[in-house]
Amino acid sequence: MDETDKRLISALRHNARAPLSELASRLGLSRATVRTRLAKLEENGDVLGFTVVMKHDQLRDAVRGLMMIAIEGRGTDRIIRQLNAFPEARHVWSTNGRWDVIVEIGSTTLEAFDDILARIRRLDGITASETSLLLSTRKAT
After folding, report:
1. Can you tell me the distance from the alpha carbon of 36 to that of 59, in angstroms, rounded to the nearest whole number?
2. Does 50 score more than 90 pLDDT?
3. 69-98, pLDDT tens digit by residue?
4. Three-class DSSP category at 139
5. Beta carbons of 110 and 88 less than 8 angstroms apart
């Protein structure tokens, strides 16, 4: 994948329904070149498909945040299993450095967000946590 392919993917991430002529104009290429490159990206498995982002998807979680968690000893696998059971835990990542796990949390209200934080903090084996609210999206992929 070269720089032109990366620019094409970036344009598609911005608007996956953009017509070939618009993509070609934006990238300074011909429609045939864009069509050929897109077909090659799909054939190679670099592009697996296209999707639609609906308004409802953005409104699902009025309050979102990232919770960084430190875990005592070797309890990481157990804590991750417990975190995965919380429906408000949208993503759970293991990581390195100061924090052992990062959890993306989503809720409808600040009160519900506060409640899930308290429930997570009470899990046996969590020694520390730090949470940052996500305020506005500056780039979405």
Report:
1. 36
2. no
3. 999 999 999 999 999 999 899 999 999 999
4. coil
5. no
User: In 3D, which of 20, 9, 77 has the Cα closest to residue 47?
Assistant: 9
Amino acid at the residue 25: S
Using an 8 Å Cβ cutoff, are 66 and 102 in contact?
Answer: yes
Query: In the prediction, which pLDDT does 102 show?
Result: 98
Q: Is pTM beyond 0.85 here? A: no
Q: How confident is the model at residue 12 (pLDDT cuts 50, 70, 90)?
A: confident
Check residue 26 and report its DSSP letter. Answer: H
β-strand partners of 131: 67
d(CA 38, CA 12): 10
- CA distances, 18 to each of 14, 22, 36, 37 (Å): 9, 6, 16, 15
Q: What tokens appear for 18 in the block?
A: 């953009």
